[in-house]
């Protein structure tokens, strides 16, 4: 597509040029990630060595070992997933019906709803934590995953509504009218005709909601009392203590923590990006 | 014709909005109420506390630190929106060219966005350290600087460093959304423009940009919101210092409430942030409506 | 019939153990100690094993969130039975009625005898004549130094600097830009930590928080400012927390560093050179030995369910055997009658014990955060060169004057 944007070069030359630019460019951009990885192999003191070392002097697996065996990072990550999956599903469910309705109902009310949805996102999370605690204490759901799931969905839902509404708008309502003529109910039209066209946007929203839920910090720490229920985003703070921080373990933890999500996106992003063509315009 | 006001549609609309109002509306009301009260640790556990009207807000506006932080937040958001939209667009355009490894590289870039704010803050804190930081080391080796730059300990530079780190952090998010929208632009539009004799730049201006407008606006709006609430990373990176040069509204609110025990003030700061975003959200929704009617 | 008896017997036993388990009360404890060697784990385990009435269930709260979590607990009426709070914050909670008054319990306690506590901990945790918390452990600050670097620069590591002038002279000699070494490091981070590190120098100069604009106070801040401006200390100290300063010391980039005993386990592991500790210097002509008192306190929040149990736990944690375990992570006993047998790092231990005699507490004052913050700001302004020390301190004094007028220190 950029073929049409750049001065005429043979397609092949352009691609080679881009590769030559792309890899080093990405490497530079990702340098901090590299830094995070090698810090996990350094000793705590070497991280602060002056001059900085670009490769650990004596690479050690001690931090990774401690994170995997002693801290049981597997349990933290499992909790992260236990929270993230239901949040994603709930977000997709509520988000798709909400965005669909917003695309079909043209009214001031809808605009107002959209504005409010956006507004509510900006309030500092640290301040929202206390009243959220009160809500869940009131319904007796403290110290449960369900509470965290419900609270986190409120965050991802706003994003879903904002992104999905324009996508639904691109699906012409003539399709539903035709379906109605054929005898479909409104719901059947939504379920059988509109939704299948939205596969790719729903995939995007789902993946991004998953990532947001996976990284959620404030709600788990507020609503979950027990350490063994905490997800990785909270678990990483276990290395930051009153007296000192075990930075090499923090980085080892982070390196492992990021793998599941990264894998998910690497697998899906081809579909996410190129697939939107299929859904949006027909 | 299917009625556009079918009851099912209203249920569809009400369910998520109601859910949001309950989950987020109540906390906001709670905090707005707190911002109008004199709240101490003693009465924090009660709902009824002495009402002081707008006193907290008056005290806030009179506080030079608040004014400084408010301006910081505006600058932070502005730079983030500009930086992320432009860089995200550039990156999306770059990777849209399907060269070998393009998809893989683009996916890999997303790794930055998935890191916890704490980790991003710590990494950039080390990299920006005047003495042992990699950035100064590389710049010095390339003979670009003679004295170490005090990225985080010079009040004049700290905010820039925080902006750089945050743009780096979130840019892949913007990039992926723009990339998705890019692929939705039909090829025939470009071919038609080319036939009309439009050069590459003109095609960009007349085909790409207009088609991307809704997405760019959506990204700008989302980046505004996410920048306004950026907390973890800045807390880990500079804690708002030195001398509040990199302090932003959510961090100030946290400092008031959880470090100085001034809960009414903390809530007032949060309310300010909402008022600011109100303006942005209204603009966004208006523009979106124009697009829809067009 | 034997089967019936058997079943009856089993049922009886089951009921007994069930009621025993039911009768055992749970004490919830919140603490931030993530180091697995911390004495709290040993304490919890042995407490639970030593008796059947109570069982401690601990929640590890990330250190950065501890005060925030306590505030949330107050706001929602869900406090734990026992909590460890940082010393300067206790007064804020106590003055607002959020901690249980334990004065009488301590007086009647057969385990806790305040008269054998160090001077500092004897008065911290007290608010308006009543006691609301008791020190779990204490710490203070001393001067770490790199003996190898001393020798390399012709300084005698057996005769570490004892006065301000000697510290400054040593720092000058030790600073080596080519070798990327700074003579000295201290924490000037925009948080309670910089106040903690600065107060010893303020007190050594004969100054006090009441008179931040007096010449003595200005001399103290000027001393710090000169070290930074002359390049003997890095400008980055305004960004470094105490453990960051220690990191640079361990990496060999700070020849001297002001730090506490909690750093010892890490220093032993990661500092690959001959490291030593000495007491903080005195100001030439003033000869006042002073250091800051730090540490965490045990407190029982208002609304706790198991107050008696919590206090029993506090008593248990204040016994000498627990403190013996505490020194493994560099935590010092608040009692002067506890002498660690065969301590790890014996020389360092001796130094810190000596320094403890001169450790002065911060406050107590219910608005300590409001007193501390202007000091932090003044330090940052002076060290970044934004304002000269005299002006920075004058403005700080103006900010805290109304607070002290309402409630003196």
- Greatest contact between two chains: A-B, 116 and 118 residues
Q: If you average the pLDDT of chain A, what whole number results?
A: 84
Tell how many strands the DSSP assignment of chain A holds. Answer: 0
Shape of chain B: globular
Oligomer: heterotrimer
Amount of beta strand of chain A:
under 5%
Q: Ranges of chain B with pLDDT <50 over ≥5 residues?
A: none
Going by helix content, strand content and strand pairing, the class of chain B is: mainly alpha
Mean pLDDT figure of chain B: 86
Question: How does the overall form of chain A come out from the CA principal axes?
Answer: globular
Q: Helix and strand succession of chain A?
A: HHHHHHHHHHHHH
CATH-defined topology of chain A: MetI-like fold
- As for the CATH topology of chain B, it is MetI-like fold
Distance between the termini of chain B: 23 Å
Please compute the radius of gyration of chain B using only Cα atoms: 23 Å
Write the layout of secondary structure elements.
The complex is a heterotrimer of chains A (282), B (294) and C (409).
Chain A: H1 11-29, H2 31-39, H3 62-70, H4 73-104, H5 108-119, H6 125-138, H7 145-169, H8 174-181, H9 186-197, H10 199-214, H11 218-223, H12 232-235, H13 247-280
Chain B: H1 7-35, H2 55-62, H3 64-96, H4 102-109, H5 111-114, H6 117-127, H7 134-141, H8 155-183, H9 187-195, H10 200-228, H11 232-237, H12 249-259, H13 263-293
Helix pairs in contact in B: 1-13, 2-13, 3-8, 3-10, 8-10, 9-10, 10-13, 12-13
Chain C: H1 2-23, E1 25-31, H2 39-50, E2 54-60, H3 66-76, E3 82-86, H4 87-95, H5 103-108, H6 119-123, E4 126-127, E5 130-131, E6 133-135, E7 142-146, H7 147-152, H8 164-174, E8 182-185, H9 192-204, H10 215-229, H11 242-250, E9 254-259, H12 264-270, E10 275-278, E11 291-292, E12 296-299, H13 307-317, H14 320-326, H15 346-356, E13 359-360, H16 368-384, H17 389-406
Parallel strand pairs in C: 1-2, 1-3, 8-9, 11-13
Antiparallel strand pairs in C: 3-12, 4-5, 6-12, 7-9, 7-10
């Amino acid at each position: 597509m950029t073929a049409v944007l750049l001065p005429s070069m043979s397609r092949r030359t352009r691609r080679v040029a881009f590769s030559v630019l792309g890899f080093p460019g990405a490497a530079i951009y990702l340098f901090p990630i590299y830094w995070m990885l090698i810090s996990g192999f350094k000793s705590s003191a070497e991280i602060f060595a002056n001059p900085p070392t670009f490769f650990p002097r004596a690479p050690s697996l001690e931090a990774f070992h401690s994170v995997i065996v002693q801290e049981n990072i597997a349990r933290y990550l499992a909790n992260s997933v236990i929270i993230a999956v239901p949040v994603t599903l709930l977000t997709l469910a509520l988000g798709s019906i909400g965005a669909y309705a917003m695309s079909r109902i043209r009214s001031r009310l809808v605009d107002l709803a959209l504005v409010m949805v956006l507004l509510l996102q900006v309030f500092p999370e640290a301040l929202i934590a206390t009243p959220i605690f009160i809500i869940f204490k009131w319904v007796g759901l403290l110290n449960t995953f369900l509470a965290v799931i419900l609270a986190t969905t409120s965050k991802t839902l706003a994003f879903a509504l904002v992104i999905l509404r324009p996508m639904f708008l691109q699906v012409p309502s003539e399709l539903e009218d035709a379906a109605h003529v054929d005898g479909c109910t409104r719901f059947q039209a939504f379920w059988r005709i509109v939704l299948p066209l939205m596969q790719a946007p729903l995939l995007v929203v789902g993946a991004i909601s998953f990532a947001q839920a996976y990284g959620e910090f404030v709600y788990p720490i507020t609503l979950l009392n027990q350490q063994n229920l905490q997800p990785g985003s909270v678990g990483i703070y276990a290395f930051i203590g009153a007296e000192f921080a075990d930075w090499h373990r923090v980085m080892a933890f982070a390196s492992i923590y990021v793998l599941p999500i990264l894998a998910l996106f690497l697998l899906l992003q081809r579909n996410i990006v190129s697939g939107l063509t299929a859904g949006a315009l027909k | 014709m299917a009625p556009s006001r079918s009851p099912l549609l209203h249920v569809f609309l009400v369910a998520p909005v109601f859910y949001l109002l309950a989950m987020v509306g109540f906390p906001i009301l709670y905090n707005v109420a707190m911002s109008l009260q004199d709240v101490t640790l003693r009465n924090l556990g009660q709902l009824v506390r002495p009402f002081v009207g707008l006193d907290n807000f008056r005290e806030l506006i009179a506080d030079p630190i608040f004014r400084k932080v408010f301006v910081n937040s505006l600058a932070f958001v502005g730079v983030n929106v500009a930086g992320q939209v432009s860089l995200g667009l550039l990156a999306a355009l770059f990777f849209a060219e399907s060269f070998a490894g393009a998809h893989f590289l683009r996916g890999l870039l997303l790794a930055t966005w998935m890191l916890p704010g704490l980790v991003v803050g710590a990494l950039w804190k080390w990299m920006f350290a005047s003495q042992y930081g990699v950035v100064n080391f590389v710049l010095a080796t390339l003979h670009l600087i003679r004295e170490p730059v005090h990225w985080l300990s010079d009040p004049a530079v700290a905010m820039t460093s925080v902006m750089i780190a945050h743009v780096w952090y979130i840019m892949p998010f913007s990039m992926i959304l723009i990339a998705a929208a890019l692929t939705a632009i039909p090829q025939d539009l470009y071919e038609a423009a080319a036939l009309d004799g439009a050069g590459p730049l003109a095609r960009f201006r007349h085909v790409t940009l207009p088609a991307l407008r809704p997405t760019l606006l959506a990204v700008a709006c989302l980046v505004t919101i996410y920048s306004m609430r950026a907390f973890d990373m800045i807390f880990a990176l500079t804690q708002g210092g030195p001398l509040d040069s990199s302090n932003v509204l959510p961090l100030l609110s946290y400092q008031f409430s959880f470090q100085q025990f001034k809960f009414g003030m903390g809530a007032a700061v949060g309310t300010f942030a909402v008022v600011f975003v109100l303006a942005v959200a209204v603009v966004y929704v208006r523009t979106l409506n124009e697009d829809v009617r067009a | 019939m034997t089967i019936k008896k058997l079943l009856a017997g089993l049922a009886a036993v089951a009921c007994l153990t069930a009621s025993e388990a039911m009768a055992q009360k749970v004490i919830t404890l919140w603490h931030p100690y993530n180091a697995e060697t911390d004495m709290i784990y040993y304490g919890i385990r042995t407490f639970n094993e030593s008796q059947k009435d109570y069982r401690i269930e601990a929640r590890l709260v990330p250190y950065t969130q501890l005060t925030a979590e306590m505030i949330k607990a107050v706001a929602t009426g869900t406090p734990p039975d026992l909590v460890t709070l940082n010393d300067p914050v206790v007064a804020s909670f106590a003055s607002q009625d959020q901690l249980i008054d334990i004065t009488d319990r301590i007086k009647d306690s057969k385990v806790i005898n305040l008269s054998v506590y160090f001077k500092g901990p004897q008065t911290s945790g007290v608010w308006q004549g009543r006691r609301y918390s008791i020190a779990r452990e204490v710490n203070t600050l001393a001067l770490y130094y790199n003996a190898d670097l001393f020798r390399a620069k012709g300084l005698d590591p057996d005769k570490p600097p004892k006065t301000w002038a000697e510290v400054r002279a040593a720092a000058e000699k030790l600073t080596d830009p080519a070798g990327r070494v700074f003579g000295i490091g201290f924490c000037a981070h925009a948080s309670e930590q910089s106040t903690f590190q600065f107060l010893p120098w303020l007190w050594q100069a004969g100054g006090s928080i009441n008179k931040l604009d007096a010449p003595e106070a200005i001399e103290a801040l000027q001393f710090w400012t000169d070290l930074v401006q002359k390049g003997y200390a890095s400008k980055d100290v305004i960004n470094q927390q105490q453990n960051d300063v220690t990191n640079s010391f361990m990496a060999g980039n700070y020849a001297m560093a002001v730090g506490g005993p909690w750093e010892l386990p890490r220093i032993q592991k990661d500092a690959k050179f001959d490291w030593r500790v000495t007491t903080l210097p005195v100001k030439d002509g003033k000869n006042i030995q002073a250091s800051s008192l730090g540490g965490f306190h045990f407190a029982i929040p208002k609304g706790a369910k198991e107050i008696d149990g919590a206090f029993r736990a506090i008593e248990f944690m204040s016994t000498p055997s627990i403190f013996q375990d505490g020194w493994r992570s560099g935590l010092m006993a608040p009692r002067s009658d506890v002498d660690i047998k065969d301590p790890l790092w014996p020389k360092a231990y001796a130094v810190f014990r000596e320094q403890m005699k001169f450790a002065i507490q911060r406050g107590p004052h219910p608005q300590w955060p409001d007193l501390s913050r202007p000091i932090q700001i003044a330090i940052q302004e002076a060290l970044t060169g934004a304002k000269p020390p005299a002006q920075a301190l004058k403005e700080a004094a103006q900010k805290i004057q109304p607070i002290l007028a309402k409630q003196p220190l």
